[in-house]
Amino acid sequence: MKCHVCGAYMHTTITDLPLKVTDKTVVVLKALPVWQCSNCREILIADSVMERVEELLAQVSEDAELEVLRFAA
Ligand SMILES: [Zn+2]
């Protein structure tokens, strides 16, 4: 996997990623498997992981301001 920003090698890692899903709602995804560029720190989420993320985000209450979800494949 090559970085689409700088072309450097990307490696897999596990990270916590905050996502702003609406104007007032932030979701923190814990232990998310991602690709990360070794050069510019760009993060890429694999399609299969993104599908699962979207399922998790669909369960988040619209009233929540901060929701912490643990990613489980
Ligand atoms: Zn890069």
Characterization of this structure:
By secondary structure, the chain is α+β, with helices and mostly antiparallel strands. It has a single domain (10-70), classed as Ubiquitin-like (UB roll), CATH 3.10.20. The protein contains one helix and four strands, in the order βββαβ. It has one helix at residues 47-58, and strands spanning 10-20, 26-37, 43-44, 66-70. Strands 1, 2, 3 and 4 form a four-stranded mixed sheet that branches. The radius of gyration is 13 Å and the shape is elongated. The model has no long low-confidence stretch (mean pLDDT 94). Residues 3, 5-6, 8, 37, 39-40, 42 line the site of zinc ion.
β-sheet strand percentage: 35-45%
How many beta-strand elements? 4
| Gyration radius, in Å | 13 Å
CATH architecture: Roll
How many H/I helical runs? 1
Hetero groups in this structure are: zinc ion
Q: Summarize the biggest pleated sheet.
A: 4 strands, mixed
Structural class: alpha+beta
CATH class: Alpha Beta
Task: Determine the mean pLDDT.
Answer: 94
Helix share of residues?
10-25%
Report the order of strands and helices.
EEEHE
Overall geometry: elongated
Note the gap between the termini: 21 Å
Q: Indicate how many domains the architecture comprises.
A: 1
CATH topology: Ubiquitin-like (UB roll)
